[in-house]
Amino acid sequence: MSVLIDPPNWPGPRGLLWSHLVSDSSVEELHAFAALLGVPPRAFDRDHYDVPETVYERAVALGAEAVSSRELVARLISSGLRRRKTRS
Length: 88
Hints:
Blueprint: E1 3-5, E2 10-11, E3 17-23, H1 27-37, E4 44-45, E5 48-52, H2 56-61, E6 65-66, H3 69-79
Parallel strand pairs: 1-6
Antiparallel strand pairs: 1-3, 2-3, 3-5, 4-5
Domain DUF4031: 3-77
Organism: Planobispora siamensis
Protein name: DUF4031 domain-containing protein
């Protein structure tokens, strides 16, 4: 399993810090892991899920690899699964 999660460092809704959850193998693997974690589909954004700090420890316990934000992005790019925002 190659699901990665970065530390909850990003301020977001409800006054929580947020992490990014990605897969460096496949989007299908990412969706399956997010479902197992109980993360709703609406939290998916192009190539990652935004997850609140309240699920970080559970994600790691279920097998997500805790990595730095820099490593998460580097591995996502090298996997070919990175999807950048398009300019309007």
